[in-house]
Every structure is written in C-alpha cells, then in structure tokens.
Design a protein that fits this description.
The protein has 472 residues and is α/β, with parallel strands linked by helices. It is built from 20 helices and 14 strands. Strand 6 (170-174) and strand 7 form a beta hairpin. Helix 3 packs across helix 5. The model is unreliable at 38-48, 197-220 and 248-257 (pLDDT under 50). The chain binds uracil.
Length: 472
C-alpha cells in the first residue's frame, strides 16, 4: 500500500495515517511511504475506511519518535510505525538493545544536532523594510526536514522583524506569524551586489571570539560553508582576531544586540498592574508573555514555578540558568541537581514542594557560543516581584525557603548579610515565615573541596529544618 505525506505537516499527517493503518490492521512492512504528492492523492489515501485506532504511547517516546521522523532516512516511517505498534503492545521505551528503538534514538539525536546547527549558522541579510518592520532573508541547507521544528526559535528571537528562511524543500516566513510553504526555487540566491553589501556588514559585526577554526570545521561541515558569504573573509578576519578578542575582553561584555535591547526597553512595562489570574495555571500563561523588564527579549522563554498548587512549602531561587531557559522549567540544570540530591538527603518530599525563582527570565552575557549567567539588577527584581507575590498568594504556603541573596531581597526587602542570616527564620511583609539558606549554585562555585563539603552539610541541615517544619 502506498501512503503519501505532505511536505508541510509531514509528522502530523503520518500520525493520523498510522492510526488509520492500525485500525485496519495493516502491518508496517506492507506500507510504502512517500513525501510530497499532490493534495488529490493525499486526501484519497488519507481517508480510513474505519475510525482510526487510539494508540497508547507515553509522551517521551512519542516525542523522540516524532523528532526522528524529521530525519532524512526513507525507512523512518516504517520503523516508527513498527515501534509505535510494539509500544502499544507493551514494548518498554528506551531499550537500546532493540535495533529499531536504538536507531530512532540516534536519529532523534542527529535531528536535534541539525536544529542546533540551523540556530547557530543561519545568516540573515537585510532585504529592505515592510512598513516599520525591517525585513531579512536567509538561505540554509539542513540535512533533515527540520524547518517546521527549527524555526519557532527564530520567531521568538527575531519577533520584531520580518524574515524568510529558505531551504531547498520548505521556506519559513515570519511577519508576526510563522508560516511554511514549499520552496519553489531550489537554488540558493546568487552572489550579487546585495551579497557584497551583506559581506561588508558581516565583517563589521564579526565576532572574533568565535573563530576557532578546528571547532568551526567539526561543528559546521563544509557543505554549510558555501551558504556563508563570509567564508572567504575568514582568513583575514582571523589574522586580526587575537587583538580584537583582547579588546573585547577589556570592554564590558555585550549583553544582547543593542537594537534588541532598545526594543525591549520600549516594551518594558514595569508599572503596569499585575494581571488578575484565577489559578496558578492562568498565572503561568500570563507570565509567558511578560515584558515588564528588558530581560524577556534575549531569553528563550519565561520560566515559571513548578509544583503542586497547594504545596505547604515554596522554595525560591534567583533566576533560571541556561538549561532552565531552554527547557522552560526551574532548577533542572547543575544547581537543580545539587538541590535535588540535598533535598532527598534532608528528607524533603520533592513531590510536595513548589519551586520557583525571584526573576523569571534568564539574564546572561553572550561569550561566543556560551551564555554566561549574570545577576539580576534591582529594577529587574522589582519588575518580576509581582509574579512571585501572585504565586505565593495563590499557593499560600506555610513556609517559604529563600535560597540566596536575590530571593532573600525579594522576600524580605534586604538580601544583605546572607551568610550571617542563613539558618534563621524571618518573615515576608504578609507574615509568612521565611527560612534563609544559601543558593545551591554557591556549592558548585566553592574552589575548596573541604569547604564545599562542609557547606553542603550546612545546606542539608537548613533543608532538614524545612522538612521538620512540614512534619510538625
Ligand atoms: N538557579 C536558580 O536560581 N534557579 C534555577 O531555576 C536554576 C538555577
């Protein structure tokens, strides 16, 4: 049996077809999949003769399988079909001894890598303006079908401009809304005068700290180089790079492109009243659009708190880190792992606690590919305070634990003298008890192993106080 899938929305169409095939009892080996037919054929074989079958698949498995479906391997549809049916019949997800599962995991990984490359290597050229918005275009040749999953990143990062990313198969277009269409011309744009201008522009924004030729070659296969108009400028740029790196280090590191920050500042509305929300979930949804301070612009997303809405204890940290910013969840990076370990030792039941941050966006400076954490400034802490207060008002915990000076400042009005105040109880303006302790990342920064061990024990003692308070 032949099954055709559209070029846009391939994965969703495959999912629907597989349910239909499962209902009809058609085995994976009896299907030949193909991408890119005309709509007539598409709808002809899309209509199952009986209602589609619901398959019970866990979310993590489905996510990996659908990521792997973006791979260019023509066998991927049959393999995924087979694994989906077997998962529904009790196969345990993640078993790498199963060749099909292993292949899916490997392919999902290489799709993620391709997406990462797209994020790192797409180069926009300015192509004019449409009204007040500037317009940009880029050509990119991914290895896999990643345009639909890879471009929401650009919509988030470059939401204040119009842009087009063309690839040989699919073109993504953004004008406030992200749309996809099949690419009509499969040839990259010719190198012309505009290209020349763009090269000059690139030379002026060239970041010498990024020139690590070996790393660049291993990260970016040669096939990507031809899409970079700057490629033949690189040798000259490298020569001047060392001096410029030194100059850059001497200057204060740039926080985010000036233009983006300027826009963010205009959009920042710290004095606007906090929205009313009837539930923690509604509050989370409102916070997702927060633009009360400029930190929202370079960050990937708002990282809201997590935990039961009636948790008896709320832990408050400083702000999300790099991994939290990407995943949209608090305390899942290195500091979160320390917190988890020590909380377990202290007898805290993580299922009963709510964990959040004083500031809900990641503040960082970009150094090459790395995003280096920066402490939030007082205006940023103030701009975000309303979210924390609203979370606390909704949860009404019996105890709040302030981890680190920023949380302490937000909760009590002063973050000074953290190490003298740790282990003690104070209270918020509303009279809720606040237990003071260090931030778990402090333990990661201590250079002396002995001191780090001793501090970890004290942190554990502080958390044990919270556990006793809850048990009382
Ligand atoms: N540090 C914090 O304060 N919060 C996080 O979510 C992660 C690291």
């Amino acid at each position: 049996m032949h099954m055709t899938l559209p070029v846009i929305g391939t994965v969703a169409a495959w999912r629907a077809r597989v349910r239909g095939l499962a209902a009809e009892g058609i085995a994976p080996g009896d299907v030949v999949w193909q991408v890119g037919e005309d709509a007539g054929t598409l709808f002809a074989d899309a209509r199952p003769s009986i209602p589609p079958r619901q398959l019970r698949i866990n979310r993590a498995a489905l996510h990996e399988i659908e990521t792997a479906l973006c791979h260019s391997d023509p066998e991927r549809f049959n393999r995924a079909h087979d694994v989906l049916l077997r998962l529904n019949d009790g196969l345990v997800w993640g078993d790498r001894t199963d060749p099909a599962v292993r292949r899916i995991l490997e392919q999902a990984k290489s799709v993620r890598r391709d997406i990462h490359k797209m994020h790192a290597f797409v180069r926009f050229r300015e192509v004019g303006a449409s009204g007040p918005r500037r317009a940009f275009a880029a050509w990119f040749e991914p290895e896999h079908s990643i345009v639909e999953v890879g471009t929401p990143f650009f919509a988030k990062r470059f939401g204040d401009m119009d842009w087009v990313i063309a690839t040989p198969l699919v073109t993504a277009r953004f004008d406030g809304q992200l749309r996809f269409e099949e690419t009509r011309s499969t040839a990259p744009p010719p190198p012309d005068a505009t290209e020349e201008l763009w090269r000059t522009y690139y030379a002026s924004i060239f970041n010498p700290a990024r020139v690590m030729v070996k790393a660049m070659q291993s990260e970016m296969p040669r096939k990507f180089w031809k899409n970079l108009p700057e490629a033949d400028l690189i040798p000259g740029l490298i020569r001047g790079a060392e001096t410029r790196v030194r100059q850059m280090q001497e200057r204060e590191a740039e926080e985010a492109p000036a233009r983006r920050l300027a826009v963010a500042r205009r959009m920042a509305t710290p004095d606007r009243p906090m929205p009313e929300a009837g539930s923690l979930e509604a509050l989370r949804a409102q916070a997702a659009d927060c633009a009360r301070c400029p930190l929202h612009a370079p960050a990937t997303q708002t990282v809201f708190g997590e935990g039961p809405p009636d948790a008896p204890v709320v832990f408050v940290g400083e702000q999300p880190g790099d991994q939290e910013d990407l995943a949209g969840r608090p305390f899942i990076g290195p500091a979160g792992r320390v917190f988890d370990e020590v909380a377990l030792e202290a007898g805290l039941d993580r299922g009963r606690i709510y964990i959040t941050n004083a500031v809900k966006h990641f503040k960082f400076t970009q150094r090459g590919k790395r995003r280096i954490h920066q402490r939030p400034a007082t205006p940023e802490i103030h701009a975000c305070q309303g979210w924390l207060e609203a979370e606390l008002a909704m949860i009404r915990p019996r105890l709040i634990v302030a981890m680190g000076a920023t949380a302490l400042q937000t909760l009590t009005g002063s973050g000074a003298g953290l190490l003298q105040r740790r282990g003690m109880m104070e209270q918020t303006k509303k009279g809720v008890p606040v237990l003071i302790t260090i931030h778990p990342s402090y333990l990661l920064r201590l250079p002396d192993a002995e001191l780090a061990r001793a501090e970890r024990v004290r942190f554990c003692q502080d958390l044990a106080k919270a556990a006793h308070f809850l048990a009382a």
